[in-house]
Amino acid sequence: xxHALLLAPLLAAACSAAPSSTGPTTVADPGxxxxxxxxxxxxxxxxxxAAPAPxxxxxxxxxxxxxxxxxxxxxxxxxxxxxxxxxxxGAPAAGQAGIDVVHVETGKRTRVHxxxxxxxxxxxxxxxxxxxxxxxxxxxxxxxxxxDLGKRARRALVHGAYHTxxxxxxxxxxxxxFPEYEGWMSWDLRSAKPKRISGPEDAWQAPxxxxxxxxxSKVGERRVxxxxxxxxxxxxxxxxxxVTTPPWYLAWPGNxxxxxxxxSPDGRFVVYFSQRGGASxxxxxxxxxx
Length: 290
Hints:
Keywords: Signal. The chain is mostly beta strands and 290 residues long.
């Protein structure tokens, strides 16, 4: 029944093996509000992954797992979080799903969270949040998780959470789909419950008034776009070709077209998404305006 409901265009989700549950645990969230949570998804350990050889400083590309890639830039503007995740039609094998952090100036890639979870959100230099819906973590594990780098992720909010994004108030905004179906919500990290905010009915379109976009398509007068196999940066009236590569088409739910590239907060780096030769890639190119 849930799978049939998820086919509605308002929902975006993924499905993978559910984390094991051994009973509830009481922990304190950042605002010292005690909440009862189940054990989080698989234990988090930092594992370094071999870095690709860059063709030039800041020009990197990584093969990633999954069909619903989501990324977010850290406040320092040189680290990028990448979620490796699938939608509910597939289930990852052990070691496939997880969240990586890559340093675009060194090429170092580190697995910071092992297991289900997507749409990472940076809350500071060494802290992030991510969502895990009932389709990824089952009813016993759904919610929003907090992750201090180098430590184990823990669930801090029990709720049906989809498409977690950074809020302008320093908290998290997300789409409440199954089982609550409440629309776009805001959580300040301290309250026991999120509050509903005005926003689009489409789960894929975050409310701009509350959103702090951590990989925007436009920074100042600079914007990035992909047309066919070409990724461009448009700076004032000048169009610069950045890379030529086939786009990554998001085919589920429905045909939502090509996943568009985005920029680092200072506009120096371009992130693009590509599928070719049966593999999926996230790439970064440094842009230096002439």
